[in-house]
Amino acid sequence: MSFTERKISYFDKPGPANTADAARFAAARAKELGLTTVIVASTSGETAEEFFRAMDGSGLELIVVTHVVGFTKPGEWEFSRERADRLRKKGVKIVTGTHALSGLERALSRSPKIGGGSRTEAIAEALRRVVATGLKVAVECVLIAADQGAISVEKEIIAVGGTATGADTVCVIKPSHTANFFDLQVREIIAMPRNR
Questions:
Q1: What's the pLDDT tens digit per position in 64-85?
Q2: Are 193 and 10 in contact (CB under 8 A)?
Q3: Residue 192: beta bridge partners?
């Protein structure tokens, strides 16, 4: 029988207080595995900048996935344009795409005429409730990045998500496109909140 032991870090609580450690864990594990890409979710750009600072000079590629335009308010992008400009000038890719685990499905479930949950939202809720909200976010960011052509589906990446704000869940994922969702594999959980 062959196996590999890996260290998993557990945060006491979810939230932005874990962001610096999550960035450090992501960069360290990427280096250990010889991976080249770290994907992180960021709404305003604050988490993205913290990850950039932690990874600066490491040789790792940072890809930031943002909320879609209109996520909170029609026509509005929550990501700071000034932060986006600064990060892009430093070589960071910023990807914005429709949320793979809600998108159109959310419009249907919120509709008073149609109502009810969808299978897609059930998958999202299962990831959120059974493991961690940050895992759902990390998986969704990988799907969005793959669908936008920002990453290959052939190579493992480090993916990082959070609970509302900041970063608190770090994992190794073998990507897939949304249309091939069940080919996606969460291969390692590096860090996550123990209590949700």
A1: 999 999 888 999 999 999 999 9
A2: yes
A3: 10
